[in-house]
Write a structure and sequence with these properties.
alpha/beta; TIM Barrel; 2 domains; five-stranded parallel beta sheet; globular; metal-binding; transferase; Cbl-indep_Met_Synth_N; methionine biosynthesis; amino-acid biosynthesis
Length: about 750
């Protein structure tokens, strides 16, 4: 009989219960017992849903209060010394300290999980790093599910992936892969204990099989699974996802484990090849349901793939599942009562994907639900033929875009002279990335306006008041380039998507980005255009309140698409070009409204980079062209800024330079300015704002800490091209943290300015 499985389920709850409980705990409004009770209830509900759907292999340990990589670090005792952990009593507070920092310890670096918008906490390694099995979460949750009558399949990040994603932080020259033996020994202990506890399966995620691997990584993989294969009483499943195996196929298929999982959405062409290479005992899990997007699966097409694989290995060794964890999907469509029936019939969230998995598994055993298959076939046809998807005018405009539309009038050096004359800014100019705290008062007013209980005039007056307060605060602090604060905006993608044709929005379609930060990605279902101006009203109003330059704030085309659920019926590059043209219209209108500087955030530019280097050039070519298409419609004396979050830039620095933004701001505080190395080695020609204030942590850095970071920056960058700014927008922080931190930042810039005079 074909087996159905899931690789992971959304942990956040249908109504963001996890976010509410976690933030209440941080505020002191909920004790640890209450937080853990919320987690237990979410796990119970998730396991019950999967069992009810008919999933055979249900995961455990896919739940986390923050991040699964952080959870692994805590399980194996890899806690940096600065957090003062005594080696015992591993608990949730240790994890939260690592994730959020303390007043005396900078939080662990955070970056993107492969090419997703999910973030993980980067493991840190030093000469003193040791690994020991000190946590119990993976065992506790297995026992918890077993008490509910469900024997789950525990899940954990694999040793090769963990070492690959970590970084050496002590400058010792340590080769982090030299830690493999110690780490593998702990994995063996975990597998042995799970076997003793009655676990039948252990899923070990090794998504680095979708990357270009070197000989050292390959050796670690071979050693790890040779040892794990010797553990009696438990079947090991190694899961790869997010891409094709390509040149890693031989290594992957030769692993001495019970089962392998492949991503048959991104690696569809490899499914039959992998199946043909397996020995006669090994199971193959085919991830045929897209875990990263929200469109219904074409069940007829998926079943054809499964039948081909079954022809190679038989039904008894066939497992059907999603391409990756459903962590990246919203929880359920059941709550989306405001979506029209036609549109809703095109979609499948996590719960609906469970039904698709079970349908495919049953159909592989000739138990076909003909009613479901017929309905699915009709939904596929309805979507393909729908008039709401296609706009001929948008397509014609995208096709007509030419090289001249992607060029500024003069090179940067000439533009810089005219911009500096116009802006008249001092050395070390200060600014922020755009947003200010979205307080309960702001969120309440926006919600009331959306519901219709706060009239337009009253809401506008409220926003005018908040913008005026923000402008005055920035002027009083001494900021050089101001922002309006974005109080009218819900999310940097959602706000724009709501005003663009071709976008749709859910009410409860939340997914986790990191910790308690959730996003509600828009759905790009059709051709994209801008019916009318989106930001000009409030940017123009803010500029009217001050003689200082006001920066217009926009989200860039790559990020607008990368952080959405994207249509799958045309190349992503085409969708990004359409969005770029819509953003271009807004840029031109902001300039006409008197804005001398416009920031086009491309926080996801690096995130969108393909996992394989062989695919980079094609992506970078169209991604850079689309940014330039969005930004190059302005005069030379209008300053274009961009912002990028949590990105390793070394490999793509030339492409970033090709974007030709006048100023780029980047995250550098958690990495202690390490990310600037790329800009130094390449001799980045334009202006840079290295973030000196980590906004993802509640700690308030003092002036001297920021001065030291800026000194590090000016050791490698020309001081005349350095801006002073936070790492990112401030919407998720509170004013009690933001005001002193920003004051320290401005004071730090003033002190360096005075010393340079």
């Amino acid at each position: 009989m074909t087996i159905s499985q899931n690789l992971g389920f959304p942990r956040i709850g249908e109504r963001r219960e996890l976010k509410k409980a976690t933030e209440a705990y941080w505020k002191g409004d909920l004790d640890r017992a209450g937080l853990e009770a919320t987690g237990a209830e979410l796990r119970r509900s998730n396991w019950a849903k999967q069992k009810s759907a008919g999933i055979d292999l249900i995961p455990s340990n896919d739940f986390s209060f923050y991040d699964q990589v952080l959870g692994l670090s805590c399980l194996i005792g890899n806690v940096p010394e600065r957090f003062g952990w005594d080696g015992s009593n591993m608990n949730i507070d240790v994890a939260f300290d690592m994730a959020r920092g303390t007043q005396g310890a900078i939080a662990c670096e955070m970056t993107k999980w492969f090419d997703t918008n999910y973030h993980y906490l980067v493991p840190e390694f030093t000469q003193n790093t040791t690994f020991n099995l000190v946590g119990s979460k993976i065992f506790d949750e297995f026992a918890e599910a077993k008490a509910q009558g469900i024997t789950t399949k525990p899940v954990m990040v694999g040793p090769a992936t963990y070492l690959t994603l970590g970084k050496v932080t002590d400058g010792s020259g340590l080769n982090k892969f030299d830690l493999a033996d110690s780490l593998i020994d702990v994995y063996v202990q975990i597998a042995e204990k799970l076997a003793a506890d009655g676990a039948e399966w252990l899923q070990i995620d090794e998504p680095i099989f979708s990357l270009d691997l070197d000989d050292t990584q390959r050796a670690v993989i071979e050693k790890a699974y040779a040892k794990l294969a010797q553990v009696d009483g438990i079947k090991i499943m190694v899961a790869n996802y997010f891409g094709q195996l390509a040149d890693n196929m031989e290594l992957f298929t030769s692993l001495p484990v019970a089962a392998l999982h492949i991503d048959a959405v991104r690696g569809l062409k490899e499914a039959e090849v992998v199946a043909a290479r397996l020995d006669d005992e090994k199971y193959l899990s085919v991830g045929i349901i897209d875990g990263r997007n929200i469109w219904k699966t074409d069940l007829e097409r998926a079943l054809a793939t499964i039948e081909t694989v079954k022809g190679e290995i038989g039904a008894e060794r066939l497992i059907v599942g999603p391409s990756c964890s459903l962590l990246h999907s919203p929880v359920t469509l059941r709550s989306e009562t405001k979506l029209d029936d036609e549109f809703k019939n095109w979609l499948a969230f996590a719960e609906e994907k469970l039904d698709e998995i079970v349908f495919i598994a049953n159909a592989a055993d000739s138990k076909i639900d003909k009613t479901m298959l017929a309905a699915n076939k009709q939904a596929m046809a309805d979507r393909a033929d729908s008039a709401r998807i296609h706009d001929a005018a948008v397509k014609r405009r995208a096709e007509a875009a030419a090289d001249k539309d992607m060029q500024r009038g003069a090179p940067y050096a000439d533009r810089a002279a005219s911009q500096h004359a116009k802006l008249d800014l001092p050395a070390y100019p200060t600014t922020t990335i755009g947003s200010f705290p979205q307080t309960q008062e702001v969120r309440k007013a926006r919600a009331a306006h959306k519901k219709g209980s706060l009239p337009d005039a009253e809401y506008d007056a409220f926003l005018e008041e908040k913008i005026a307060e923000a402008v005055k605060m920035q002027e009083d602090m001494g900021f050089d380039m101001l922002v309006h604060g974005e109080f009218e905006r819900n999310d940097m993608v959602e706000y724009f998507g709501e005003q663009l044709a071709g976008y749709a929005f859910t009410k409860f379609g939340w997914v986790q980005s990191y910790g308690s930060r959730y996003v509600k990605p828009p759905i790009i279902f059709g051709d994209v255009s801008r019916p009318q101006a989106m930001t000009v009203k409030w940017s123009k109003y803010a500029q009217s309140l001050t003689d200082k330059p006001m920066k217009g704030m926009l989200t860039g085309p790559v990020t607008m698409v990368q952080w959405a659920f994207v249509r799958d019926d045309q190349p992503r590059s085409e969708t990004v070009k359409q969005v770029a043209l819509a953003i271009r219209d807004e840029v031109v209108d902001l300039e006409a409204a008197g804005l001398a500087a416009i920031q086009i955030d491309e926080a996801a530019f690096r995130e969108g980079l393909p996992l394989r280097r062989a695919d980079w050039d094609a992506y970078l070519e169209w991604a850079v062209e689309c940014f330039r298409l969005a930004s190059c419609g302005v005069a030379d004396d209008t300053q274009i800024h961009t912002h990028m979050c949590y990105s390793e830039f070394n490999d793509i620095i030339e492409a970033i330079a090709d974007m030709d933004a006048d100023c780029i701001s980047i995250e550098t505080s958690r990495s202690q300015m390490e990310l600037l190395d790329a800009f130094v080695q390449f001799k980045y020609p334009n202006e840079i704002g290295p973030g000196v204030y980590d906004i993802h942590s509640p700690r308030v850095p003092d002036k001297q800490e920021m001065i030291e970071l800026l000194k590090k920056a000016t050791e490698v960058l020309p001081a005349e091209r350095v801006w002073v700014n936070p790492d990112c927008g401030l919407k998720t922080r509170g004013w009690a943290e933001v005001e002193p931190a920003l004051k320290h930042m401005v004071d730090a810039a003033r002190e360096l300015r005075a010393k340079a005079a």
